[in-house]
C-alpha cells in the first residue's frame, strides 16, 4: 500500500508539471508577431510624417508622396525579442485614396491599427477631417472581400476590449467599482458580451479596427489664445466634440506636440500595448489642455458632460464651425509682373516709322556729311566748348580754329601733341598748323571768299560755302 500511494503522488506531480508546461506552451507567445501594421490617415500638412518620425526616434523626417512605407523597431526586453512594426502613411490628396488597397487588404485587416491625424493649427476643420477620413476608411472596408465571420469577430473583439477596460491601479483593488462594472457590464445570461447594452453614443460605428485619434501641434494653442482670442471655452467645446467622435468609433485620443515632445513617447507605449499586449500603466490625462490622453474604454457621455460646465456662450450641440470660426485673413500675394517680349519684326517696323517721321530732327551726321559740318549750332564741339551761333555760321569755324590755336588746360609747354596715329608732332608742324588756321581766319574776315583746299597737317578739307 505505501508503495502504491508513493507512486500515485509521483504521477500527480508529473501531471501537474506537464499541465503547467502545456499551459505555458499554449498560452505563451515567445515571439512577437511580424504581421502587425499601423495605417496613418489625415490631410496634408497635419503632421503625419513628423509623428511617425517621433515614433521611430528619427530627428530628420523625410516626406514622400502617395503611399509611404516606414517601420518602427519594437523590442520586448522581458522576452528578449524584437520585431518591426510596419507603418503606412497615405497622402492627404483625395486622388491617392485608391492606394489604400495596398496597405489595408483582406489579409491585413485583422492586424491593422488606424491612426486618424488632425492638427491644432486648423482647429475649425478638425471635426470635418475626422468625419471625412472615417468615411474614407469605411468605404474602403466595404469594398474588401473580408469574411463575414471574421469581420463580426473583430467587432466583438473591439466591444470586449472596451468593456474590459480597467483603470491602471484598479486591477489590484478587488473593491474597485471600475473593476466590478467592467466584469459585469454588458454580459447577458450566457455570459457573452451584448453590444446593444453599450452606453449612450458608444461604438455606434464599429468598424472592427483599433483606432487612435491624434491631434498634432497642440503647442499652437498658445498662438490661438494670443492671436485669435481663444479661451478655455473654445478648447472645451472642441474637446467634447472630438471625444464624442472617439466614443462613436471606440477610439483612443491623444493631444501631441512634437515641438515640445508632449505625449509622443506615451503614444508609442500605448500603440505597443494595443498591438502587442505590452503592459501600460498610464491613466487618462484630462488636466493639461495641450496634452490630453483618453484611452479606449475609459470615456463615456457622463465624463464628457463635465466639459459642458465651462460652456457659457455656446451650447454643446452648436454647429462646430459656428463656434470655432476660421479667421478671414487676407494674404498679400506678391506677384511679379510678367514681361512679354515684343515681336522682333514689329519692333523693327515701329522703329522704322519713328525714323521716317522724325529723322530730320535726330542728332548726328547725315549720309555723306562730316561730323564737323553736321554739328548743330549751339551744341558742344570736339573739345567740349560751346559754340556761339552767328549769321552765316562763321562762329562755328572761328571757335573750331581757336580751339586749335589755344593750348588745352593742364598741358605743359614741353608736352608734345599726339596725332590720331599716336605719334608725336614736331614744333614746326605745330607752327604750320597755326599759320594755316590764321590764314583761314583772314580770308573769312575779308569777305568770305571761297578759299581753296587746306593742306594743313590737320587733314581737314573746308569750303566757305559749306557754312
What does this structure look like?
With 467 residues, the chain is of the alpha/beta class. 37% of the residues lie in helices and 10% in strands. It has 14 helices and seven strands. The protein has helices at residues 2-27, 48-56, 100-103, 126-143, 148-163, 177-184, 221-227, 232-249, 264-276, 301-304, 320-323, 344-358, 394-405, 427-445; strands at residues 37-42, 67-76, 81-90, 112-119, 210-216, 252-255, 293-294. Strands 2-3-1-4-5-6-7 form a seven-stranded mixed β-sheet, with helices on both faces. Strand 2 and strand 3 form a beta hairpin. Mean pLDDT is 78; it is low at 178-193, 365-392, 408-425 and 449-467.
Can I get a quick summary?
The protein has 467 residues and is of the alpha/beta class.
Amino acid at each position: 500500500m505505501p508503495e502504491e500511494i508513493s507512486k500515485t503522488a509521483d504521477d500527480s506531480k508529473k501531471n501537474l508539471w506537464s499541465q503547467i508546461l502545456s499551459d505555458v506552451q499554449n498560452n505563451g507567445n515567445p515571439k512577437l508577431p511580424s504581421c502587425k501594421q499601423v495605417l496613418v490617415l489625415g490631410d496634408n500638412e497635419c503632421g503625419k510624417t513628423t509623428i511617425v518620425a517621433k515614433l521611430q526616434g528619427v530627428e530628420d523626417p523625410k516626406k514622400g508622396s502617395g503611399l509611404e512605407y516606414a517601420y518602427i523597431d519594437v523590442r520586448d526586453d522581458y522576452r528578449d525579442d524584437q520585431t518591426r512594426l510596419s507603418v503606412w502613411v497615405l497622402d492627404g490628396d483625395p486622388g491617392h485614396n485608391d492606394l489604400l488597397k495596398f496597405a489595408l487588404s483582406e489579409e491585413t485587416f485583422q492586424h491593422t491599427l488606424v491612426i486618424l491625424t488632425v492638427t491644432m493649427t486648423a482647429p475649425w476643420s478638425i471635426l470635418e477631417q475626422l468625419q471625412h477620413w472615417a468615411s474614407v476608411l469605411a468605404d474602403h472596408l466595404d469594398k474588401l472581400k473580408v469574411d463575414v465571420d471574421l469581420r463580426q469577430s473583430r467587432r466583438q473583439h473591439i466591444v470586449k476590449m472596451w468593456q474590459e477596460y480597467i483603470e491602471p491601479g484598479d486591477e489590484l483593488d478587488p473593491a474597485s467599482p471600475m473593476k466590478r462594472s467592467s466584469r459585469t457590464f454588458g454580459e447577458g445570461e450566457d455570459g457573452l458580451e451584448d453590444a446593444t447594452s453599450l452606453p449612450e453614443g458608444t461604438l455606434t460605428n464599429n468598424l472592427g479596427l483599433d483606432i487612435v485619434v491624434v491631434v498634432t501641434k497642440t503647442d499652437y494653442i498658445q498662438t490661438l489664445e494670443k492671436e485669435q482670442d481663444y479661451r478655455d471655452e473654445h478648447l472645451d467645446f472642441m474637446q467634447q466634440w472630438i471625444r464624442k467622435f472617439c466614443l462613436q468609433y471606440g477610439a483612443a485620443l491623444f493631444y501631441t506636440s512634437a515641438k515640445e515632445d508632449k505625449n509622443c513617447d506615451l503614444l508609442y507605449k500605448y500603440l505597443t500595448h494595443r498591438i502587442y499586449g505590452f503592459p501600460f500603466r498610464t491613466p487618462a490625462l484630462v488636466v493639461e489642455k495641450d496634452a490630453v490622453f483618453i484611452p479606449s474604454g475609459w470615456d463615456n457621455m457622463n465624463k464628457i458632460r463635465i466639459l459642458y460646465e465651462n460652456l457659457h456662450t455656446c451650447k454643446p450641440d452648436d454647429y462646430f464651425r459656428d463656434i470655432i470660426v476660421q479667421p478671414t485673413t487676407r494674404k498679400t500675394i506678391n506677384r511679379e509682373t510678367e514681361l512679354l517680349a515684343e515681336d522682333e519684326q514689329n519692333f523693327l517696323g515701329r522703329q522704322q516709322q519713328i525714323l521716317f517721321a522724325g529723322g530730320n530732327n535726330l542728332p548726328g551726321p547725315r549720309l555723306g556729311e562730316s561730323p564737323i559740318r553736321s554739328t548743330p549750332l549751339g551744341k558742344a564741339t570736339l573739345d567740349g566748348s560751346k559754340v556761339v551761333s552767328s549769321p552765316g555760321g562763321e562762329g562755328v569755324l572761328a571757335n573750331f580754329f581757336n580751339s586749335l590755336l589755344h593750348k588745352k588746360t593742364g598741358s605743359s609747354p614741353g608736352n608734345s601733341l599726339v596725332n590720331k596715329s599716336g605719334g608725336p608732332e614736331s614744333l614746326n608742324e605745330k607752327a604750320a598748323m597755326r599759320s594755316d588756321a590764321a590764314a583761314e581766319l583772314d580770308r573769312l574776315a575779308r569777305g568770305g571768299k571761297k578759299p581753296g583746299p587746306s593742306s594743313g597737317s590737320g587733314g581737314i578739307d573746308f569750303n566757305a560755302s559749306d557754312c
